[in-house]
Design brief:
The complex is a heterodimer of chains A (126) and B (368).
Chain A lengths: L9 E2 L4 E6 L2 E6 L1 H7 L2 E5 L6 E2 L4 E7 L3 E5 L4 E6 L2 H4 L3 H4 L8 E5 L3 H4 L4 H7 L1
Antiparallel strand pairs in A: 1-2, 2-3, 3-9, 4-6, 5-8, 6-7, 8-9
Chain B lengths: L2 E2 L3 H6 L3 E5 L2 E6 L3 H10 L2 E4 L6 E4 L3 H8 L12 E7 L5 E10 L2 E5 L5 H14 L5 E4 L5 E6 L3 H6 L14 E6 L2 E6 L8 E6 L5 H11 L6 E3 L1 H10 L33 H10 L4 E7 L10 E4 L2 E12 L4 E8 L9 E6 L2 E7 L9 H4 L1
Parallel strand pairs in B: 1-3, 4-14
Antiparallel strand pairs in B: 2-3, 4-10, 5-8, 5-9, 6-7, 7-8, 10-13, 11-12, 12-13, 15-18, 15-20, 16-17, 16-19, 17-18, 19-20
Helix pairs in contact in B: 2-7, 3-4
The chains are: A alpha+beta (126), B alpha+beta (368).
Chain lengths: 126, 368
């Protein structure tokens, strides 16, 4: 099975993706991550408005067997969370880069984005 | 060193993901835990459970040794019968839970993964201490153990033998030829479904049996099943798991296994659990179904009105019920059926209701 790595995203070594749209960015987990976790059955999302630092715990994703912490790729403020995941966490498995996004945040420091992995480096790391 | 099943390469070929469990690298899943779980509930699944142990107990006092070292009176268990029981320490706590099979003049015991030497040594020490002419020998490396579980398990196996599998009674065991291979079959399992377990030696012959069972079960939708689904299947049926339910010295009474104790004979640990029974003030296993969103896990605290009243020993999301379920050790004053308790998940209290076991009833597959 080939795991998708999209060319328009930035990545972390801990398998989160970041989609930058101006000052805002969406965050999710990669196709590789969802494939490793399989059967995502529960997502605990952060509160809107919460300030979070790069590398801090952003949310919790649970599969049948495991609890995984998802870390914030950059620092910033949570603007929106994907409420649909509360009733349909399997969307992360089905569509990790689109419907399965986790949160949208306001980026505090754009310089942090440069330190993330580009698609080629991420592809090599998995 | 991590041990592997003789079927390791077959599992790899089937796309298994592996996990380490009690010193063994075994498949945790092939497709997905949910999918494998529902396959066993509705159709049939094939498990390699070679991480479990095989101990032969022989000698003229073999029956006496088992009666002494387990809570069962082995004289009740006739030839061709299996029995689920526990081995206790003198203080009444569980060393291991196990099944033993009475096969002619000897017994095969199936201790848990990683428990082969502990059980073998314990049995031999007790034989010596009590002057019994009996010997326990660890043959775990010589056996592959397969479990065929699910409503179509009997139909699958029947295609591979001339022997009428319908005559093997629940908890019956015997020698049998399946897929042109000598096996021991027992009508037992860990899923709560119709099911059988096969002990196969020499282990190299098992590859062929494994492949033939998968082939025979194709028409019924058979799939190979990993340890992930094995755990969720047993938890929905409230079967205990070594390591989770008796990791820190629990007695059969605490684990609600009083029904397995045969009080009419003397056995190691009897005095201690009799005393506990009289006192009555001990935590007992309790079955909790979440009524709020959340998945309880091993080690979560259980609270009532903010006060600690117990601890979760096993928890998961039930693939059949799509709810969080848990087995927890709870103080006797807070175990009333239908009352609610809070399970603390990452510091958030999640409400759960005390229910009667099992979480998933026998007719679930027919109704769903």
């Amino acid at each position: 099975m080939v795991e998708e790595v999209r060319d328009d995203l930035k990545y972390t070594e801990s398998h989160e993706w970041l989609k930058v749209e101006g000052k805002k960015a969406k965050v999710g987990i990669t196709d590789h991550a969802q494939s490793e976790l399989t059967d995502i059955v529960f997502v605990e999302l952060p509160a809107v408005g919460k300030e979070i630092k790069k590398g801090e715990e952003l949310c919790i994703v649970e599969s049948v067997k495991s609890v995984s912490e998802i870390y914030s790729p950059v620092s910033g403020k949570i603007l929106e969370v994907n409420k649909k995941l509360e009733d349909a966490p399997e969307m992360i498995n089905q569509n990790p880069y689109d419907d399965g996004w986790l949160i949208e945040m306001e980026i505090e420091d754009k310089n942090e984005i440069d330190k993330l992995l580009d698609p080629e480096s991420y592809r090599k790391s998995i | 060193m991590v041990q592997r099943s003789p079927l390791h390469e077959i599992h790899k070929g089937l796309g298994a993901k592996f996990t380490e469990f009690a010193g063994f690298e075994m498949p945790i899943q092939y497709s997905s835990i949910k999918d494998e779980h529902l396959t066993v509930r509705k159709k049939v699944g094939l498990f390699d459970v070679s991480h479990m142990s095989n101990v032969w107990i022989t000698g003229i006092d073999a029956e006496k040794l088992i009666s002494l070292a387990t809570v069962e009176d082995a004289s009740r268990i006739g030839n061709g019968k299996s029995q689920y029981t526990e081995i206790l320490r003198e203080d009444g706590t569980i060393i291991d839970d196990t099944i033993f099979m009475h096969l002619d003049d000897k017994y095969m015991m199936i201790p848990n993964a990683g428990m082969a030497s502990t059980a073998t040594d314990w049995l031999n020490e007790k034989a010596e201490e009590y002057n019994l002419c009996a010997k326990a020998e660890n043959f775990s490396k010589d056996y592959v153990i397969l479990a065929i579980q699910g409503p179509k398990s009997r139909d699958t196996l029947q295609k591979l033998t001339d022997f009428d599998i319908g005559t093997v009674k629940f908890f019956g065991c015997q020698y049998i030829d399946i897929a042109d291979t000598d096996c021991i079959i027992s009508h037992t399992g860990y899923t709560g479904e119709l099911g059988f377990e096969l002990q196969i030696t020499p282990s190299k012959t098992a590859k062929d049996v494994f492949d033939k069972i998968l082939e025979a079960g194709k028409e019924f939708g058979i799939k190979p099943i990993g340890l992930g689904a094995r755990d969720t299947l047993r938890l929905e049926k409230c079967f205990i798991l070594a390591g989770n339910e008796f990791e820190s010295g629990r007695t059969p009474l605490e684990a609600l296994l009083g029904w397995t104790v045969n009080w009419d004979h003397d056995f190691i640990g009897k005095k201690a659990i009799l005393k506990q029974k009289e006192k009555g003030d001990f935590q007992r296993l309790t079955y909790l179904e979440c009524i709020e969103k959340g998945i309880p896990r091993h080690g979560c605290k259980v609270k009532k009105d903010g006060k600690d009243v117990g601890i979760v020993s096993s928890g998961t999301l039930s693939p059949c019920l799509n709810k969080g379920i848990a087995m927890a050790y709870v103080h006797p004053d807070f175990r009333e059926k239908d009352s609610t308790l809070d399970i603390l998940i990452r510091n958030n209290p999640v409400k759960a209701k005390i229910v009667k076991p099992p979480f998933v009833k026998k007719d679930w597959a027919e109704e769903n």
